[in-house]
Specification:
The structure is a homodimer. In chain A, helix 1 packs across helix 3 (about 40-55) and helix 2 (about 30-40) packs across helix 3 (about 40-55). In chain A, about 25% of the residues lie in helices and about 35% in strands. Chain A has helices at about 5-20, 30-40, 40-55, 85-90, 110-115, 145, 160-165, 190; strands at about 25-30, 60, 65-70, 80, 95-105, 120-130, 135-145, 175-185, 200-210, 210-220, 225-230. Chain A has 8 helices and 11 strands. By secondary structure, the first copy, chain A, is α+β, with helices and mostly antiparallel strands. In chain A, the strands form 2 sheets. In chain A, strands 5-6-7-10-9-8 form a 6-stranded antiparallel sheet. A 3-stranded antiparallel sheet of chain A has the order 1-3-2. Chain A folds into 2 domains: about 5-70, Arc Repressor Mutant, subunit A (Orthogonal Bundle), CATH 1.10.10; about 85-220, Chorismate lyase (3-Layer(aba) Sandwich), CATH 3.40.1410. At the A-B interface, helix 3, strand 4, strand 8, strand 9 and strand 11 of A face helix 3, strand 4, strand 8, strand 9 and strand 11 of B. Strand 11 (about 225-230) of chain A pairs antiparallel with strand 8 (about 175-185) of chain B. Chain B binds a DNA duplex through helix 3.
Chain lengths: ~240, ~240
DNA sequence: CAGTGGTCTAGACCACGTC
DNA sequence: ACGTGGTCTAGACCACTGC
């Protein structure tokens, strides 16, 4: 009846306990040290460390070593935010995008702060419909010095993300965002055709390209548009990857 | 001047093009076939397929093969849902948990359906406070045949998750959940001390242990509790792919 | 320079699904 | 019986950071 758990799992378990019980507070044994300690090949020890890095438990730095992440992500779940177009496809819904504003000018103070930038910005305001129902409103500020030409693009039929990636070679390397639930503000009641106070999601997102904040967006989205996700806390064999392209 | 990109990246590129140009519409060459075609070892071909599976581009099924995913996960972001206790720690807030109900009985019909189970369930109703403010209400049904003893545990000071994992050896292997934004229902106005209609998050979550659904929870959480996340859309310890050109 | 992680090889055994 | 993916071995070379 002897269990025969995989060796790399035993190593992962060992390291996690070492972290929890403060055995390792910063550095973690190297691949070679683990391989010797557990009597396994280096590839197997490596596998354990790679999985821990994928989980976010650990950081690996070539030439230096493997280190405990201070801000562990004890994720007990997550919700993915997909590009609107892909979402519409999954729901088999007809997507329409209306461009309400597309202009250049000085951004409000708070936006300038968030972008850490004093110059002019492109303001894009749009409304997305699914099957004729207004579902998401977005108000977006883009650094004009990077992509002013976006004003001449066909904004109704391509995502801003795609345009930035494709024509302006601005890959989004980091995203920082918050989400709250709020009541629909009075300014948007006409667009959504709902009463003020109707429950909606409110997102604020800053997107970075190579550490430079390029894009600040505020999304307001109907609260009855459910986010659904299924995932397994085991990562290697399958599932999930916060990747875009 | 010869470029020397990694071999597994070439294989990934090959497969992605095969998918885009409809060369592969369903099945993808096996590890052995790829290894031979590219003149690499099986481990290298495998690496390519594993990464594609991690990305969500492909599904791998032991004993069968590797297949193109129809439902590609074009993630443009995500929000993690952390255990409440960890969240409180990050916010440096004092956590208090009040147990409102802890009893055994027949579950409502819709819950029995979601758990795919006809027997008795444990009903746990709790309210979590952060710094004295009621922030999250939970109503949870657990299969009594797996963990009836949980009624005698100290529910106010341990998470249900921890108890299931620790004492009942029920690791949660999968989670399926939805999130919406709704107005606070009248039944909860007293607990939250807010008017009906106050914007809140509403979560419905089913947690599985080894493919058996054992836990159904409904969370209602104040909408002003922001979810924050920062992430970089690159996954495997290897940076940006030198996109086409 | 020795140590680290990143890639790669050419074998091996296993559990599983298909025929 | 055969092919598939999952795990594992005992070597190897490289690029990088530290001293």
């Amino acid at each position: 009846m002897a269990e025969k758990p995989h060796k790399y799992l035993k190593i992962i378990e060992y390291i996690k306990k070492g972290i929890d019980y403060k055995g390792f507070t910063d550095s973690i044994p190297s691949e070679n040290q683990l391989a010797e300690k557990f009597g396994v090949s280096r590839m197997t020890a490596r596998r354990a460390l790679v999985e821990l890095a994928l989980e976010g438990t650990v950081d690996r730095i070539p030439g230096k070593g493997t280190f405990v992440r201070k801000h562990r992500h004890y994720t007990s779940g997550f919700f993915t935010v997909r590009p609107f177009r892909k979402w519409a496809e999954e729901l088999n819904a007809e997507l329409r995008t209306e461009v309400l504003k597309a202009e250049i000018g000085q951004p409000p103070h708070d936006v300038a702060l968030k972008l850490d930038y004093q110059g002019e910005t492109i303001l894009l305001e749009m409304l997305n419909y699914l099957d004729g129902i207004p579902v998401r409103h977005s108000k977006r500020y883009l650094r004009a010095d990077y992509c002013a030409g976006i004003l001449w693009e066909d904004l109704a039929n391509q995502s801003v993300h795609e345009i930035l990636m494709g024509k302006y070679k601005l890959p989004l390397t980091r995203i920082s965002q918050t989400m709250t639930a709020v009541g629909l503000p009075a300014a948007l009641t006409d667009l959504f055709q709902e009463a003020a106070g109707y429950p909606v999601f409110f997102f604020q997102r800053i997107a970075f390209s190579e550490k430079i904040p390029i894009n600040y967006v505020e999304y307001t989205m109907r609260g009855d548009m459910a986010f659904e996700d299924t995932f397994s806390p085991r990562l290697y064999p399958q599932d999930i990857a916060p990747v875009d392209q």
